[in-house]
Design brief:
about 325 residues, alpha/beta, 6-stranded mixed beta sheet, about 10% strand
């Protein structure tokens, strides 16, 4: 059976709700003034920030950004598992929000189906859409590394938040709009519980900002935001300070063996020194191609034998007649 975490968090309810009362409440309207007045005296405000389910481009290691790709079968099952977990926990959700991008909306719809809720009540929000990655979008790790090495290095090494890929947006712009959404929702649903289906770069940037986690060139650990992970925020009555209760929780998918991405999403900002390791780990060239590239750099300019060796390896690496010429 799915384990239910216990404690003071809405996701850790010690006992299930009565069968005579609805387990969850999903409405498209904000809390009434009377409800707000009552709830803010005794009830904290809770926001559940969730990354969408696995997509086809996730499995291919492609930069998605503000382009889109359909959920995989596993991605659909991840979203359904999240809904089942929430239903078992007896969480009362006052509103479900979603990024306007299809992969997030589809994940939110699957979650609602799992909870026997009406998906038409999902509230789309542009502020929680993925960061724009411009010229990187639609390309794999290896393609971006080969075609835009300078831009990729700047993306991974810049820690001031102002760098933006051509045609994309900066981390600071992403943080500003996600913080705006959080504050607006905190006010509208004061004393209630809200869930938002969003994206990996949004979750990472938002929580780093809230917790003041720097973008260190040599971090001691990575912050991994996996598909349909739950990140739980709470604000006590009368307070302006958010508390992080959980970060990257995937107990619902682990319990079902739905592991999703086992490598870091391409959008996750990591040190430039680790870029090549990440690319080769997920899309490693064949041995002939690696040797071909090495010979092109070193031996070809030195002697005709090196040129010939490079040509043979180029042909074996699948480069055809151009490979035979060492090109």
């Amino acid at each position: 059976p799915m384990p239910v975490l216990r404690g003071s968090s809405p996701l850790r309810t010690a006992a299930p709700p009565s069968p005579h009362t609805p387990r969850m409440c999903l409405t498209s309207e904000p809390l009434s003034a009377a409800d707000k007045s009552t709830s803010t005296k005794t009830t904290p405000t809770t926001v559940l920030v969730v990354r969408h389910g696995e997509t086809e481009w996730n499995t291919q290691g492609r930069w998605q950004g503000q382009q889109d790709s359909p959920l995989t079968d596993e991605g659909i099952q991840q979203a359904l598992a999240l809904g089942e977990r929430l239903k078992r926990s007896g969480v009362t959700v006052d509103a479900v929000y979603s990024s306007d991008l299809l992969r997030a909306k589809r994940s939110a719809e699957m979650l609602c189906h799992s909870l026997d809720m009406d998906p038409s009540l999902i509230r789309e929000n542009l502020d929680m859409r993925e960061r724009g990655f411009g010229i990187f979008e639609g390309r794999t790790r290896a393609e971006v590394s080969e075609e835009y090495p300078v831009e990729l290095n700047k993306y991974y090494s810049s820690n001031d938040g102002e760098f933006k890929v051509e045609g994309g947006e900066s981390r600071r712009e992403l943080i500003n709009r996600s913080l705006k959404w959080l504050e607006e929702v905190g006010e509208e649903h004061d004393g209630g519980t809200v869930l938002v289906m969003t994206h990996g770069a949004v979750v990472s940037a938002l929580f780093r900002e809230i917790l003041s986690i720097p973008y260190d060139p040599k971090p001691a650990a990575d912050l991994r935001i996996r598909n349909t992970c739950i990140c739980e925020l709470r604000r006590d009555p009368g307070s302006t300070r958010w508390t992080v209760l959980s970060l990257g929780d995937v107990a619902h998918t682990e319990a079902k063996g739905l592991h999703g991405e086992l490598t870091a999403p391409v959008e996750q900002e990591v040190p430039a020194t680790e870029t090549v390791q990440r690319i080769t780990h997920t899309s490693r060239p064949s041995l002939p191609l690696r040797l071909f590239r090495r010979l092109k750099r070193s031996e070809r300019a030195k002697n005709i034998g090196g040129w010939a060796a490079a040509g043979v390896l180029g042909f074996l690496a699948g480069r055809g007649p151009m490979g035979l010429l060492g090109l």
